[in-house]
Write a structure and sequence with these properties.
By secondary structure, the chain is α/β, with parallel strands linked by helices. Helix content is 35%, strand content 27%.
Length: 339
Amino acid sequence: MQSADQEVLNQVKHWLDSGQKCWLATVVATYGSSPRPEGSLMACNLEQQVVGSLSGGCVEDDLKEKLTRGELAESKPQFFRYGESEEEAEQLGLPCGGHLDIVVEPLETDADTTNAFAQIVNCLESRNLAVRRVDLTSGWMEVVRTTSYTPFRYDHESTLIEQTYGPRYQLFIIGTGMVSEYVATFAQTLDYQVTIIDPREERLRDFSVIGVIKVCDMPDDVLRARANDSQSAIVALSHDPRIDDMGLLGAFDTEAFYIGAMGSERTSAKRRERLIELEVGQDQLDRLHAPIGIPIGSKTPPEIAISVVAQITSIRNTFQIRSPASKRLAASTVTANVG
C-alpha cells in the first residue's frame, strides 16, 4: 500500500516515461470545511484517467473534462477556483460557504520534466524527502532533495509553490512481533518513516515488513539520538519489561509528541511503579499512553494496531507540531521549465 501522494507521483512518472502528457493539480487553499487538506494532489492524462483526489466530490470529474477539452492549463500552469457561487459549491459537493483553490500544471514529456519527477519518486522509494518549487508564471520547476519537512507554501502574488514530499513524521517501534508488524504497515501508509528497534538479533532478522529501518540495539540510546524532535512518535511493543522500560527511559528524554506502551491496565500500573522506582517524574509519566490505543474493543493484532495508529494520528492532528528548519542538499537539485 502507498500513501496518496506517492500513488499520484508514481503515476505521473509512469505517464511521462511512456510519453504521455498529463496534468498535476494541487490544492493550494481551502475555505470552509474541506475533506482534503492543502497540498493534496490529483493527476489526469489525455485519456481522462485520474489518480488522487482534490475534494472527494464532483470536482475531479469537472476538472478532467476541462483539461481534456483544452479549457484549462493547456500550455502553462494556471490557478483556478471552485465554488465561486453557492450554486456551484452545491453542485460540486463542496461544503456550504466553502470553496477550493487549485493550481493545475501541464506536464510535457521532455527530459527535464521527466527527470524531475523521477528524482521525486526515487526519494519517496528510499524514504527520503524531496521539495518541489514551481514558478507558475514562468513554468520553472526545481526539485531538491532535503533532510527535513517544511509545510506546504503557496504565494498567490508571487505565484510560487513549495511542497515537500516524503515521510513527514517518524515512528519508532520498540520490539518485534505481530502487533509491531501491523503498526509498521499501517504507519507507512500514513507517510511515517518507521524504525524498529530490538536487541534480539534473530527477532529483528525475521521482521518481515518492507521499508522499515531496523536497529539491533538497546532502545534508550537509539531514541535519544534519533527521536529527539516533535515529529517523532514512540511505541513500546516488545512485551519484555527490560526492553520496553529501557526504551521508555530514553523516550522521556526526547521531544516526541507521542509515547505509548502496550499492556493491560494491570500491566500498565506495574510499569508505572517500576518507572517511579527508576526516578521517573510524574510530569514524564503523564506523557505515557498506557494502556496504548483508543478503546475499540480490540483483541486481534490488526485491531490493536489500528487503535494504536488511530490514537497517534489523533494526537498528531490535535497539536500544532513545529517543523524544524529545512536543510537542503543542493547537490541533488533537478530543474525544469514546465511552462
